[in-house]
Amino acid sequence: MRRMQRWIDERLAVTKVITGFLDRRVPGNIGWFHTFGSATLFLIVVQVVTGIALSMSYVPSPDHAYQSVLFIDQTPLGAIVRGVHHWSAGFLVLLIGLHTLRVFVWGAHRYPRELSWVIGVGLFFVILGFAFTGYLLPWDQKAYWATVVGTNIAGSAPLVGGVVLEFLRGGEQLGAMTLARFYGIHVWVLPASLMILVAVHLFAVIRQGIAASPRRHPILAPDSALSRRENYELEYAAEKQAGKPFWDALLKDAIVALVLMVAVLVLAVVAGAKVESIADPNSITYVPRPEWYFLDMFQLLWYFTGGLEPLLIFSVFTLAMALFVLVPFIDRGEERHPRRRPVAMGLAGLVVVGVLGLTFLGATGTPAGSVNIPPTEGMTEGQLAGLKVFNDEGCTACHQIHGIGGHTGPDLSRAGFRWEPADIERQIVTPKDEKMPAYDHLSPERLDALMEYLVSLK
Amino acid sequence: MTDESVTTPETTPESAPEDELEATLTEPVSRRTFVLRSMAAIGGVTGALLAVPVIGFAVAPALKSGAPVRFLSTSVAPTLRSDTWTRIGALADFEIGVPKYVQVERHVVDGWVQENAPVGVHVVRRSEGEAVVYDPHCTHLGCPLAWSEGSGAFVCPCHGGSFGPDGVVKSGPPPRSMVRYETKIENGDLFIGALPPGA
Fold first, then answer.
1. Chain B closest-CA separation from residue A242 CA (Å)
2. Between chain A's N and C termini, which has fewer beta carbons within 10 Å?
3. Nearest-CA neighbor of A260 among A45, A30, A31, A22?
4. Residue A372: inside a domain, yes or no?
5. Cα A87 from Cα A47, distance rounded (Å)
């Protein structure tokens, strides 16, 4: 071993490079939260390795894609490799989100690391692109319908939307061309972009050093006679002085990588990666639902209606993306400690609550016509008849009663307590709100029964 | 993709990189500058020669359909398209005013896959001699529409959109009516033709 090292060093002098890299000093207060970044990188490596393995048994054509995925699952260890690819994809989305949040809270996107943020946001979008294109590949029901919805959202851009949609689908229809394109994008275009962006992102981290955790009081008082750059460099040198060698910080990263590897492996073995039935473009009873990391966006689409709706979707998504990229140019004060950035922390909190809330609503909201409210004890015959009308008319698509049903309309669990009977009846037959269809076709008997039921909810 | 051939030249030791850069930028066009600029030009042309066919090939399928460019782009049904007339069935077999979902075999061209594939449609017979045929996808984001007897509407399970039997939006986010096939009736048989481009 030693001799081989000497032999190589005599020619390439690698040891010096490696020890220099390991021994360079980094700020001391680097803790577990800093491992989100390296964990993201680790999962990217896992994705690349398992993805390459899967590509050797997968056929990107609708007449064989599904069968080849089933074949992978029957091949020894195939289900595990696919399971690891599936689960680490989910963890990857989660960890890149946590890493982004950590960077924002620590103020590490500020001077002089603005470009690292911008590249990082690029990586975030590339990862979501991987998720979106990867999902179609098994060509099962979930894959097909998620892609129908996803390409339609991409197609909602004003003017260019039609061309974008047809570019993604390879024409108007969703079929063989779409699958092959998504495969090409998933295994060539995105990985190439990913590698370039990761290289630049890491270059920036090594060149600038890891951002120190924010201190309420800097080690050195800033000298107003010096430039921002000079003050920053003095402070960072002091941080490194008080810090530790890089190898000392690396151990935590290794432990997190091991824990993640075990976690995805266990999930792959125990839960596996589900495949639904083969994509059926003609099934009209299927209820499309995206993977959890797109549920928030999917849920958001409930709230826009009317003719300008595509424009609204597009504007909201574009604005959100632009703001995300521009964070370091908007939030640019000198103060990095979260306690001294109450507005920034408040906004970050709102975004987190918004994403979690929408994801929760998306995950628990029940689709149209698929659920019925069960009767409760002590209901009169009239109320039971009303409940049947409620269920038959598909009211649960939009209204919730005791935790069952959708979220578009108001929760009716206490309808009889909240509103006057006359107002409820008027709302059913001649609604003021354009989101609610008029149920003016109900026979008087059925309407009466429905009213009896709703009024009884207190 | 193409690699930009212009790279910042390696300057002498890092003593004063800014002065060095300044000097490089202000000096009159030297042979070095000329060579670098020529390389940039050659790199640009080489890159374009590679990029034009590649990008053209990738984008071509997007321009084939001839769908009109609209300011407000809307969803496009994922349905496999066919240009031929396809018989749905005898008109008399459909009850007036009661929507019915049927699947018919159509000859479709899906990239390299050419086959007779089933295509589902909602048929609504309006009168003795008249029927409309809808594509079963919501005009919001393309989720599948099923007829709900109870609410008298085509209901979308994604975001609560619903359409009346006339295909007009009753509730929810869909921006326009359901997509209709071109239809004809011959000898009492109902046929469907193409979907409107970009619908």
1. 27
2. N
3. A45
4. no
5. 10
Q: Do residues B103 and B171 both lie within one domain? A: yes
Kindly state whether residues A399 and A320 are assigned to the same domain. Answer: no
| CATH number of the CATH domain containing A446 | 1.10.760.10
Q: Which of A149, A167, A439 sits opposite B143 (nearest CB)?
A: A149
Within the 20-49 window of chain B, which residues sit less than 8 Å (CB to CB) from chain A?
none
Predicted confidence (pLDDT) per residue in A304-315, tens digit? 766 677 788 888
Half-sphere exposure of A260 (CA within 13 A, CB side): 27
Q: Are residues B90 and B182 in the same domain?
A: yes
Residues A300 and A161 in one domain: yes
Q: Where are the alpha helices (DSSP H) in A24-74?
A: 35-55, 65-74
The pTM (predicted TM-score) of the whole model is 0.83
- Range A119-145 average pLDDT: 96
pLDDT given at position A393: 77
DSSP A363-391: HH---TTS--PPP-TT--HHHHHHHHHHH
Looking at the partner chain, which of A63, A162, A177 has a beta carbon nearest the beta carbon of B70? A162
At A368 the pLDDT is: 43
Q: Looking at the partner chain, which of B150, B156, B158 has a beta carbon nearest the beta carbon of A392?
A: B150
| Strand ranges inside chain B, DSSP E | 86-90, 100-110, 113-127, 130-134, 146-148, 153-155, 162-163, 169-171, 183-186, 189-192
A197 chain-B contacts, CB cut-off 8 A: none
Assess whether A245 and A285 both reside in one domain.
yes
User: Would you say residue A214 has pLDDT above 70?
Assistant: yes
Mutation choice for A interface testing from B2, B55, B107, B141 by most A CBs within 10 A: B141
For chain A, give the mean pLDDT.
90
Its sign, for the CA torsion A10, A11, A14, A20, is positive
Query: What does the pLDDT look like over A405-438, one tens digit per residue?
Result: 666 678 888 888 888 898 888 888 888 776 677 7
Task: Quickly state the pLDDT bin for A156 (edges 50, 70, 90).
Answer: confident
CATH number for position B158: 2.102.10.10
Cβ separation of B73 and A159 shorter than 8 Å? Answer: yes
Any A CB within 8 A of B56 CB: no
The verdict on residue A373 lying in a domain is no
Sign of CA dihedral B95, B96, B101, B106: positive
Whether residue B143 lies inside any domain: the answer is: yes
Which residues in B lie closer than 8 A to residue A176 (C-beta atoms)? 110-113
Q: How many domains does one find in chain A?
A: 2
**B62 to A288: CB separation less than 8 angstroms, yes or no:** no
Which domain covers residue B118, as residue numbers? Answer: 86-192
Question: A397 to chain B: which residues are within 8 Å by CB?
Answer: 155, 157, 160
Interchain CB distance below 8 Å, B148 and A284 = no
Query: Quick check: A152 and B141 CB within 8 A?
Result: yes
| Residue B160 maps to a domain | yes
CA distance A358 to A296: 5
Are B44 and B113 part of one and the same domain?
A: no
Q: In chain B, how many domains are there?
A: 2
Min distance A102 CA to chain B CA atoms (Å): 33
Summarised one tens digit per residue, pLDDT across range A79-128 is 999 999 999 999 999 999 999 999 999 999 999 999 999 999 999 999 99
Does residue A328 belong to any structural domain of this protein?
A: yes
**What residues in A contact B155, CB-CB < 8 Å?**
368-369, 394, 397
Residue range(s) defining the domain that contains residue A404: 381-456
